[in-house]
Write a structure and sequence with these properties.
This protein is α+β, with helices and mostly antiparallel strands. It has four helices and six strands, in the order ααββββαββα. It has a six-stranded antiparallel sheet. A hairpin with a 2-residue loop joins strand 1 and strand 2. The longest helix has 15 residues, at about 20-30.
Length: about 120
């Protein structure tokens, strides 16, 4: 796997529709959390607010992954995530997902509350 220099490099390495879907996820986060910083960590895009990780994303061969960095948030959101494949720490979404901005915003808000920010 290539080592990326920036979130933009990461996104530009992806084929369509992965590129467009993750870009739409980022735009949704920017809309709800203008203070969010997008950084590359572990060679994939991560979101920090007040220096703390609140959300991450990555592309796999057949899906995209979204992660609120919290097993507790995943458990709390289990009813809303029932239509998705999940693990204790992430959600697998289709590469052409119709971005659920409110779900993302609510998960980040829950993670922020958990962190006290």
């Amino acid at each position: 796997m290539a080592k990326f220099e920036s979130v933009e490099d990461y996104l530009n390495s992806l084929e369509s529709p992965k590129h467009e879907t993750l870009r739409a996820v980022i735009r949704a986060i920017e809309t709800h959390f203008p203070e969010a910083e997008f950084k590359l960590a572990w060679n994939v895009p991560q979101v920090q607010i007040q220096g703390k990780y609140v959300f991450g994303m990555s592309a796999a061969k057949n899906h995209l992954s979204l992660a609120p960095w919290s097993e507790a948030v995943m458990a709390d959101f289990a009813p809303r995530l029932a239509g998705y494949e999940t693990t204790k720490g992430l959600i697998r979404i289709p590469v052409d997902w119709d971005v659920d901005q409110q779900l993302i915003a609510d998960m980040i808000s829950a993670r922020m509350a958990e962190l006290g920010i």
